[in-house]
Design brief:
single chain; 9 strands; alpha/beta
Length: about 230
């Protein structure tokens, strides 16, 4: 059975919030895949060479801080380049400071940077459908409202969800304003022979859960194996 690793390097607060907020997602993943959790760099390293490990979910901000994680960042990048899939999701965006966020993605060789933080309605990008395939694409929400930390500097064809010209910020406090159409709340990009994904949703929306499951399905499919 394909294995999915939950990388959980965050502090006790992040651990508690993740357990409370994402138990349903964890259960859904565990029903389809063999799962393992790693709470230190030492836990992760022996797993990276396992042929059964198909995807890593970085579910909190712990990886972005600490000198002890610099080497691990590079090892994870190599894992993806060799054909694995890494998805930054769940609490990752909420518990990553912008400078640490940007620095970590630079260590992966990616130009991705911490973007705006707001809620708006996003739409499934047309370009990403060729990556995900028809069946996975039709199972995703065509549009939904999401509060997210956005990514800057992403190629158009890697943007899974995008704002459109009519998209406006949604707030109970501030007046609606136009949204930067060059930023995305979710990306999935080729990295060597593998993939790196990002889901910046901070509220565990159902549409984001469906996206994570679709990305895992691709990561564990024969399509992914053939692309390595």
């Amino acid at each position: 059975m394909a294995q999915v690793l939950f990388l959980r390097l965050g502090d006790g607060m992040q651990t508690s919030i993740f357990d409370d907020l994402y138990q349903g997602l964890c259960d859904e993943i565990s029903q389809k895949y063999s799962t393992v959790q790693a709470r230190s760099a030492a836990d992760v390293r022996p797993l990276l060479s396992a042929s059964s490990l198909k995807a890593i979910l970085v579910v909190d901000g712990g990886l972005t801080v600490g000198k002890e994680h610099i080497a691990l960042q590079k090892q994870l990048s190599s894992y993806a380049q060799a054909g694995g899939t890494i998805i930054f999701c769940c609490l990752f965006s909420s518990f990553s400071r912008p400078p640490d966020f940007d620095r970590m993605f630079r260590s992966f060789g990616l130009p991705w940077e911490f973007g705006n933080y707001h809620r708006t309605t996003f739409y499934l990008g047309q370009n990403i459908k060729s990556v995900l395939g028809h069946q996975r694409s039709i199972e995703l929400e065509r549009e939904y409202s999401m509060k997210a930390v956005h990514l800057k500097n992403t190629p158009v064809d890697s943007r899974v969800y995008v704002p459109l010209e009519q998209s406006r910020t949604q707030s109970m406090v501030f007046a609606p304003t136009a949204v930067d159409q060059e930023e995305t709340p979710a990306a999935f990009s080729k990295h060597g022979s593998g993939w790196i994904g990002y889901v910046g949703d901070v509220n565990n929306e159902q549409g984001s859960r469906a996206l994570i499951m679709a990305l895992l399905d691709l990561a564990t499919s024969t399509e992914a194996s053939a692309a390595k």
